[in-house]
Amino acid sequence: MAIVGLYRDIYGILPQPNRxxxxxxxxxxxxxxxxxxxxxGQLYLIDLSTSGCAITAGACTVRDSHPFAxxxxxxxxxxxxxxxxxxTMSVSRSDGQPVTIQIENWPDAPDAIRQWTEISPPGxxxxxxxxxxxxxxxxxxxxVNGQRYESGQSRLHGQIxxxxxxxDSSPQRFELEPSS
Length: 180
Known about the structure:
This protein is mainly β. The chain has one helix spanning 2-10, and strands spanning 13-16, 19-22, 34-39, 42-47, 53-57, 60-64, 68-72, 77-81, 89-93, 99-105, 114-119, 127-131, 139-144, 147-153, 160-164, 172-178. The strands form two sheets. Strands 3-4-5-6-10-11-16-13-14 form a nine-stranded mixed sheet, with no helix packed on it. A seven-stranded antiparallel sheet has the order 1-2-7-8-9-12-15. It is globular. The mean pLDDT is 89.
């Protein structure tokens, strides 16, 4: 029971039916802890820090300074902000190359700006994103590094899908917001 309490109460690892939820309560001595955690046959690598945590599954890593959860599927990683029981972003790479997503700003409001940074190797690989819980039937604009990349309309259930091919290995900052 002591191990269960450590993982749940200190490391903040809380397996849920459809995701692995992370909300650590670290002491300074445990800052920088790295561990492996297996859930439903999938190995998750977890980096715990007082400034933000990361979960890696397969070739995808998600970093966030707030509590979050992830779920790995056959070819993508689903991101769940906070205690949400439904994912709001799905990320996959066509070439299986690693991709790291740093969540910068992910508010609950469907009309708020969502911001994240992608770090991935350049090349032929394409990163595919699906973002949900947006305003249904609304025009959205996607910016990469402050420049308009593309725009599109969310589907009736409030989802947008787009792809991005990194040009170089520098971090790429994304912003998704409703169009004016």
